[in-house]
Design brief:
This protein is α/β, with parallel strands linked by helices. Helices cover 39% and strands 22% of the residues. The chain is built from eleven helices and twelve strands.
């Protein structure tokens, strides 16, 4: 009898291409469940038992386990590395928000986020820390939860929010069309995408065999991506809504993990340290960096 298919949560953007190749070309036995609203939504889903594995943003997963008062065992552990390179978050405002001229002019404004605990939420604190706004407690006047990318774009034009952050290439076509305006950018101070498994699959020193198989298939998908760039561009530009030039430009900036199994402890520790400095996590509260990573 064949093993039960893994339910894998993912963000349906250009970064999902090696996962798509793993299923299409290498027989990955999985049900791929899209989460356009991002990592924060996947955390809710994996804790609710709706997905088995999630592929999402490092800072979202780490923040989810590092917060004070998480229930039970936290619901998941970091088990693998998907993308080695940092993520470029574009900082956007409304097309006609002439009062917003630069990143410093965002101080004390209303930040739009998809969910509390999402990458867009966490990176707001990292931005405030980098700008020196945390010291005088005047970083943002309000955090407006807007669920998805479309709502975020609408909110900065209506004035419900003043700005939001989202991945650069996903945002770029809306700059090109004039719907929203770019204010700046910020890079994650860590490798950007990690793989998590529910604690039912990553329990203590045991890792479910289906997750091991997932790593093998993903590694094959990454190799296929690296060796078949034209196919990748075709998929990204026809199925995921990016232009061909943007897809090709993105390929120059991204490096997927050749070996997806495993997570470097120092990457998680660095992320925890930055999130504590930014005030997202508190020293002595929540799970330690070491405990977040599966020891299988």
């Amino acid at each position: 009898m064949s093993a039960q298919a893994l339910r894998i949560g993912y963000v349906p953007e250009h970064f999902s291409t090696p996962l798509y190749f793993a299923k299409k070309h290498y027989g990955l036995n999985a049900i791929l469940i899209p989460f356009p609203s991002g990592t924060g939504h996947m955390i809710t889903a994996i804790r609710a038992g709706e997905i088995d594995v999630g592929i999402g943003l490092t800072e979202g997963w780490v923040a989810g386990l590092g917060k004070d008062g998480i229930e039970g065992d936290g619901g998941y552990r970091l088990v693998g590395t998907y993308v080695e390179t940092p993520l470029c978050w574009a900082i956007s405002t409304g097309a006609n928000r002439s009062e917003i001229t630069s990143v410093p002019s965002l101080k004390g404004g209303k930040i739009g986020v998809s969910r509390i605990g999402s990458g867009s939420y966490v990176m707001g604190f990292v931005l405030a820390d980098q700008q020196g706004w945390l010291a005088d407690k005047t970083n943002f006047s309000d955090t407006v939860v807007l669920q998805n990318f479309e709502n975020l774009r609408n909110a900065v034009n209506s004035g419900e929010a003043d700005f939001f952050m989202w991945e650069h290439f996903t945002t770029k076509k809306f700059y090109d069309s004039g719907e929203i305006r770019r204010v700046g950018e910020i890079y994650t101070p860590w490798s950007s995408w990690k793989i998590v498994a529910s604690t039912g699959l990553a329990h203590g020193s045991e890792l479910d065999g289906r997750v091991k198989t997932l790593f093998e298939k993903l590694d094959a998908g990454v190799r296929h991506f690296n060796e078949n760039k034209d196919e990748a561009v075709r998929y990204i530009s026809t199925e995921l809504g990016y232009t061909e030039p943007d897809a090709r430009e993105w390929l120059k900036t991204v490096k997927f993990a050749a070996k997806t199994e495993g997570v470097k402890d120092e990457v998680v520790k660095n992320c925890v340290d930055v999130l504590r400095k930014a005030g997202v996590l508190m020293e002595g509260k929540g799970m330690s960096a070491d405990a977040m990573v599966s020891k299988a």
